[in-house]
Amino acid sequence: MGVSISKQPKGHGFLNRPFNKSSNKFLKRVYKQRYLLLMSLPFVAWCFAFMYLPLFGWVMAFQNFRLRGAVTLRSFFEAEWVGLANFRELFADARFYTALRNTLGMSFLGITIGFAVPIIFALLINELRAGIYKRFVQTISYMPHFISWVVAAGMITSMLATAGPINDLLVTLRIIESPIPFLGRGELFWGIVTGSEIWKSTGWNAIIFLAAISGIDVQLYEAAEADGAGRLRKIWHITLPGITTVIVVILIMNIGWMMNVGFERQMLLGNPAIREWAEVLDVYILRFGVGTGRFSYGTAIGIFRSVVSIFLLLSANGVARKMGKGGVV
Question: What domain range includes position 232?
Fold first, then answer.
């Protein structure tokens, strides 16, 4: 009997699989964009070196790490392992909850008020018809962004001093009977920080909203005018829906940064009299972590802040996607 060997159809079998097409497309795309990829390599290296490689230092949060001479891998492995002791100490410290309250309070004011003001400002700028006046207002609004917080804090302190121009004006108008120590009353500090941030960054933050508004089709406005719509109706039914995606993305990113309010404003505008209202997590880390040489304790605070930030970011992004407003990822 003869043994018949059936022939496999062309294209079947491991050696005949057309897997080279996708790889060839990938290689062609890499070759076509080779210069862009080469230009991005320094940023990728910087991001790896300063964003991902330092994550190895998180191991300090579970150790009793003490800085003795140069920091080496051996010093990490020889440090005493304490497990979750730093986290237990963190959650038992009343000053941590005060700093957390101040951080969330200032962040909430920044997201609600500080986030809405640049959008409103961009809408008002877009409605200006005089080109010269429009450019003048834009230029003036950008300028505070380039002032350092050291100079800005000095200006704000002088303005809010008991003998400053704001108190003089309020007394002259008989709104108040005696000068108010604005920077000496803790309940006013959150509002002062939020107001100073709005003054300093409104013009700069409005740039991206103005760019989004400029991308809206002009024919939509022309059709609305033909239907008799006024400025407010065009803003409500055309401009705001046209920039909703940008607003949602920036809002999600701001929510992800709620635990990172910085420390420049709080340290420069704060004082010992209002420490309970001015101390945020960044200042708490500097004072009780790095300042006292307790690097393990400071790392534990940093891990807590990062985990909460990731949770807030993913939650906000999930809510936005469920509402059909897009998202970051």
Answer: 93-145+201-322
